[in-house]
Write a structure and sequence with these properties.
homodimer, 288 residues, 6-phosphogluconate dehydrogenase C-terminal fold, 12 helices, 2 domains, 8-stranded mixed beta sheet, Rossmann fold, alpha/beta
Amino acid sequence: MIQPLIVKDKMKIGILGLGLIGGSLGFDLKSQGHYVLGVSRRESTCKKAMEIGSVDQAATELSLLSTAEIVFICTPIGLIVPQVEKLISHIPKTTIITDVGSVKTPIVQGISPLWKNFVGGHPMAGNTDVGIDAAQRNLFVDRPYVITPADNTPSHAIKILEEIVRSIGSIIYHCSPEKHDRAVSWISHLPVIVSASLVAACLDESDTEIFQLAQNFASSGFRDTSRVGAGNPELGVMMAQYNRQALINSLHQYRHNLDHFISLIEQENWEMLTEQLKLNQQSRPRFL
Amino acid sequence: MIQPLIVKDKMKIGILGLGLIGGSLGFDLKSQGHYVLGVSRRESTCKKAMEIGSVDQAATELSLLSTAEIVFICTPIGLIVPQVEKLISHIPKTTIITDVGSVKTPIVQGISPLWKNFVGGHPMAGNTDVGIDAAQRNLFVDRPYVITPADNTPSHAIKILEEIVRSIGSIIYHCSPEKHDRAVSWISHLPVIVSASLVAACLDESDTEIFQLAQNFASSGFRDTSRVGAGNPELGVMMAQYNRQALINSLHQYRHNLDHFISLIEQENWEMLTEQLKLNQQSRPRFL
């Protein structure tokens, strides 16, 4: 049991990508007493991150991270693997790399062959705002933080990441990248397309009077059900690109359930419809 | 312009059904100085309504309403027509009847042949609680109140209802029962089945580890999108029963839009997916 000592020491921690997640992580790591090195593509973001106290030092060059003991990759998902490819020429082989991408299989598959001390991760925190201006303290408290090690991931790298994650107040989960991606396809990515289809269907009403009335009458039911389907388009496309197969599987299962509801209503099978809605009412609290 | 005078006078107003809507209406009408007569099937509800000051007088017998100038039918939707059939033997032909049902075509079709002075209505207010205990003051302020007169509805009956609706702070809309039902099928009833299918699909995940992870990871996106699909089963079945055809039409259009999204993702048509999500993002605020 020597590992806990390693991270009780103050570490040099790198953050590559100073947006909502990277910036918020900086706040919390600095408040733990770690020395935080931040890298952003933009000079203005580096300046801002230092001003607000999210990092100790910031620069646009990856070489700033050469002395970091662990580096968090906090870029948009499509840049994670390309940035790691660039980063590894600047750091010693002992440096631990972890990422915060919301899809894990393609990231782990892309980085594992390049870097032994890599541990995939996914802090499930955030809000609709983006960028360093949205960064906040304690963003990760009581939120799930999923760690997706591979079979050959060094255990000391996992332990160090775990200790840091625990120190920022998150609830740690472990699973394979594939199981992570299938789980988030159900509760995070499927809802986006389900909700997007609802907005698109309403927009297709061709009777202008009905369309106007629908807009006037829409209330909390529509507001809640349509929210994630009308969010940031880039985020929606990214999750579909990077978690495509799991999302397609979820969508086909969803379509099957939708068809079942349509057929119950067409057949006026109110007894079965009642049963299904009762099951939903009983089961949903398990997800909250 | 004599009509406004009629309703500046204090009226005797009947409320049949003392639940959330009926009880709340009683509060606001009493505070306008009207004399409110309430009828409920249950003695205990009558007692409670008087105790809290929602009505001036209450009874379980319909004969209490014989002196009312206008009666609001606030029962569950399936009881509206049967209750009106019983009520009309107790009231003079001059009494105005209106209802608060959330579907209008079957109600208007059922009552119009029985009663000349009938005006269909739908106050779009409420919350997830039910019963007289959930009744509250000012529930209808700034909320839509849809009035669905037929071609032969007497104009003085419409005017009196309008004045009352205006006095409780609602925003008045007029449309045909059919257009009302098609509009609410988009923004109120379709979201229930869309959301219910989401919950049902997640419950069908057969890998127990993934199912458990999905429950642990579910956050605000799942919470909002699944809310109306796991609400009161009786309300869900009633809206499907009474607005069946409009809901089926909306569901078929929805399935068409869903299939389009699935095919964009299967074909990796990220450009079109981006366009559709951008359109959603731009258009949704019109519904809020």
